[in-house]
Amino acid sequence: MSNFGGHFGGGRPHHGTSTMRCKYCRTTLTVIPGERAIQCSNCGSVTRVRRADRIPLPMMGPMTAPFQRARGNKRAVLIGITYAAGGMRRGSGGQLRGPINDVKCMRNLLCHRFGFPSECVIMLTDDQRDPFRLPTKDNIRMAMHWLVQGCSYGDSLVFHFSGLGAQVADDDGDEVDGYDEALCPMDAFQRGPILDDEINETIVRPLVPGARLHAVVDACYSATVLDLPFLCRVARNGYWQWEDHRPPSGAWKGTSGGQAVLFSGYSDGKNNFAVMPDAVASLGAMTHSFIKAVECEPRGVTYGRLLSSMRTIMKSGGMGYDMQGPIGAPMQHHKVANFSGVQSYSRPWAMLQEPNLSSSEMFDIYRKPFVL
User: Fold this and answer.
1) Is 52 helix (H, G, I), strand (E, B) or coil?
2) Which of 40, 50, 154, 233 has its CA 20 to 30 A from that of 366?
3) pTM of the model
4) pLDDT of residue 22
5) Which residues does residue 37 pair with via DSSP β-bridges, in sequence order?
6) Per-residue model confidence (pLDDT) at position 186
7) Bridge partners, 336 (sequence order)
8) What is the pLDDT of residue 65?
9) Nearest-CA neighbor of 146 among 166, 131, 162, 124?
10) Chain center to CA of 366
11) Which tens digits make up the pLDDT trace of 167-200?
12) How far apart are CA 308 and CA 299, in angstroms?
């Protein structure tokens, strides 16, 4: 039986159409009602919809046929997208192979090592036959709402995404670097990406005191995709410091008293135009290094030690880090590449990704234990 169903928001028919030009290739794009950004099917770039061009959604009630209420205090939403059917990977020679393996391994880790009930782990992958388990924009939105709905003290929540990310110019002054990050659902060309503003509003701000959210995002342009106010920079010599990424606009991006932590990938930016997901890579570096580091380190490992272990595993390219048993079964004897398969055409051996940590609050990363 499906864990959820029905339509959410933009899944209903809308009236009124408008068009605009892609900012990069000038292709004519159809403005999607209720959305703030459009992904171009010609060049793959994301263009912000100007406020004057946005089409509002009609007033509507809550989503119909909501999720079944699996209310354990450990819940997870795991999303893996290969884009096999959506044409996302134009000119790249095929679909991503890593994301579905990533999701399977993450589920095994949560259930076998951390005791997450299987009925409280929602998997959205584009190989599913159930239409409500496909990683469409509507389904991802419903899953995010389900994850935090009614959260309470002691809840441990996990959000995992393995797929493609995007950047789009910020238009409301809440980004230090001037860009919003976004996650691409399988229907991104038809519905647009999911912006970090919406992700923050949906799964970060509702967290109440005592509730914890850990997110692992294995995608390009994902360093601040939860829009958390503090970003931790860790040098190779172990020195670390928190950077203040609270919006210049003064907008609140924190929680309602709980804690949110994001593990993501960071690129140095020197190869932004030279990277492309590698069709033969069947594992994502972020997912692989996170799971392997958790497996190798003792329980109660600190966040700082976990990041250091992830960096070592990434630097080795995963060599010598095969996982045994049920957790690593989908990963054994597979190729590992950055960002669920990102490599450089000019320097295919180059390490383009570093593990990154951001949080809703600052803490001593070498004193605070990692607990799921």
Assistant:
1) helix
2) 154
3) 0.82
4) 83
5) 48
6) 94
7) 283
8) 44
9) 124
10) 25
11) 887 766 556 666 789 999 999 988 889 999 999 9
12) 15
